[in-house]
Amino acid sequence: MGIRSYDAFAKPVDGIRERSVAGGAITLVAxxxxxxxxxxxxxxxxxxxxxxxxHLADSVPSALFNNAxxxxxxxHRIPLRVHVxxxxxxxxxxxYSHDGNSLSSGKFEHYHKxxxxxxxxxxxxxxxKKAAVGGFGREVASTQKRSEGCTLxxxxxxxxxxxxxxxxxxxxxxxxxxSLLSFGVDPSRDPDPFHGKLPNVTHFVHDITFGAPxxxxxxxxxxAAHVMDNGSGVALANVAVKLVPTTYKRTFHAARETYQASVxxxxxxxxxxxxxxxxxxxxxxxxxxxxxxxxxHVESRENWFVFLSSLVGIVGGVFVTVGLVTGCLVNSAQxxxxxxxxxxxxxxxKNNDQYxxxxxxxxxxxxxxxxxxxRAICVRSLCLAIIEIAxxxxxxxxxxxxxxKRRDQ
Length: 409
What we know:
The chain is of the alpha+beta class. Helix content is 41%, strand content 25%. The strands form 2 sheets. Strands 1, 3, 4, 7, 10, 11, 12 and 13 form an 8-stranded mixed sheet that branches. α1 (21-46) packs antiparallel against α7 (304-408).
């Protein structure tokens, strides 16, 4: 026994196989079904499946001060990017602080050294148009007063603990404004940037981002306007942010550590600040904290080997299924015809017997008629011969009598 005896795919002889129109139509239908299934399976494979899971966030000790080396700060701090425009507040009257360390006190520069610090500058035309919004949402068309506004930009490396970020009127500018309004006395010899009015702290938040941005989600701290429409322009925009650590993993990409933000905000009016005897100055107060729960966001596709197995199974399964269905239909038809053919054959045999008997009778009658006809022809021929002989004899006797009469005469 050779290897040929183990062949499980015996090939039929080409001359024995029979091709038909129905078989070709069934094959085309099976090929079309297999193609559609292959296309749908490919689309399902290319579609990204998103899975979400929650777990406790990793505990990371915080390095609060910059005296630690860069290797020790890795993983302990996140970048905090800020881009805010105050269209009615001069840069000389703007102050900012992080965790109570303000620019006016000199502590901010002590803990946040360049390049990780903030910068104040005159807003651009586009920034001013976005930020200079009136109390009823009417954009200020004139951009000649851009020098009266201020834009704060920069990036900090903030510890991974809760904290506060404040962008407000500077203490000196606030004391000067309140002194002019209350007592009519200006303690400073510099020109009054507010022109004898209270500072308008309406501002526009272009972007405030903690860490790497989360691509599938929107940043609620982006393109947000805080309009102080109480007539004086003095109020405090209090924004509370809950940061959710999120691991974002895409197909064929490395995992990224990002943060999703849940934001709640409200405007604190000056009457409320005075009633609570708050030391907070008008402007923007951002309070943020980290949740103890983390989210894992994974985008994945089906395994390549599972996809390949599905393709092979689809092609083989379609043709095997069609072959089984076709075989069942053919066998059923043959079995049904096998029950009908014997009855038809028996009736056909009887008809054939009756036909043969009839044909025999007809043939016998024909032969008998042929014999009678032949005999009649023979009799007729004999009669004709006798008549002719008799006529000849008669004519001959008349000729003899005529000849003798002529002789006698």
